[in-house]
Each structure stands twice: as C-alpha cells, then as structure tokens.
Design goal:
Elements: H1 3-40, H2 44-75, H3 82-107, H4 111-115, H5 119-144, H6 148-179, H7 183-216
Helix pairs in contact: 1-2, 1-3, 1-5, 2-3, 3-7, 5-6, 5-7, 6-7
Length: 217
Amino acid sequence: MYSGELEVQAKRKALAVLQDEINRILNAVRDLSSLPELIIKSDKSEVKQVLERIKNTEDEVEALRRKITREIADVGGLMMNRENLLNTAYTMDEIAGYITGIAFKLSNIKGATLKKEKIEKDLSELIEQAVDQIYKINEIVRALGGNATVAIDLAHEAQKMERMVDEKYRSLTIKVLDEVTTTKELMLLKDVVEGIEEMSDKCLQVSDSFILLALSL
C-alpha cells in the first residue's frame, strides 16, 4: 500500500476518534449544565450521579486519547500534521479534565449562595455558552470529513463564542466578588467561574487546531 493511502486511512481513523472524544465531552458538559439547578434543589443523589458520569467520561476520553496516540505512532513519519492531531487530542483531554474539576467544586457550593442576586442564572448562562462552544467543535469535526471550507467557517464561529464567554465571565466575576461574603464559598465559586473561562480558552485552541487540520486535508 502506498504511503499516501496509509496517511489518508490514518487521518480518517484519527478524525473518527476525535469525533468520539468530542461527543463524550459534549455529554459531560451538558451534565455539568444541570448541576446548578440540582444544587439549589438539594438533590444530592442526582448530583452524585452527575459527578460519577462526568468522571467516567473523563476516563473514557483519556482512553480515546491513548488510542489516537497509538494509531498515529503506528504510521509514524508517514503522516503530516501528526503533531497537530496529537496536540488536539491532548487538549480535548484537558477539556474533559476541566469539566470534572469544575463539577467537583460546584457540587461543594451551597444552594443558598447560588440564589444570591440570581448568581445561578448567570452561572447557568455561562455554562450554556460553553456547551454551545463545544457543540460547535462537534460540528467542526464532522465537517472535517467532508468539507474543509465549512469546517473553517465553523471554527471562526467558535472563536466568536469564546469572546462571548469572556464577556460573561468578567461580569459574573464582578457579581461574585460583590455578593458572596463567605470566604470558602467565594473561593469555590471564583474557581468555578475561572475554570469555565479557562476551559473556553482550551476550546479556542482546539478550534485553531482544526483550522490547521482543515487546510491540510
């Protein structure tokens, strides 16, 4: 088999694994979006189940990242942009880790704190923006298999979403600092908000990586 055919096959396999990764991450961030309401309702059983699902998803994403690493290693120097593919897979693995960390800290915040000045509403909106951003990445991966131009356009849309997350993050940070007086709750909530913003930055990195991949396919 020609080296070019091996490279094409390897890229297709890698894209399939990336698609599987982002699907699982999307499910995890949707679970994360349900947490604020569950915390206010004091539904400890459901909160525990959500945390378990998110942690399991992180483990699954890590396993997929190892899989794509092995497949790219098998092709070796025959594949162009292999470093970009690997960096993308590792960054997506980091996104799954962020979701787990955010969920854990959020689950330790009291419902009464989230009720202050509608913090829960703003926090839910911030998480939903992150959900939309990850959903856009999901669309990008699917587009990469057929239309690189569409994938690039979608990546630019994801970049605009990251700027929206930044704006929401800043306004919510100010509200948290103004309204939350308990040190422990303030630290946890500040970490949660910052974690979502940092996760959004990782999503932006993935979007940039997919532009490079689209140009090479």
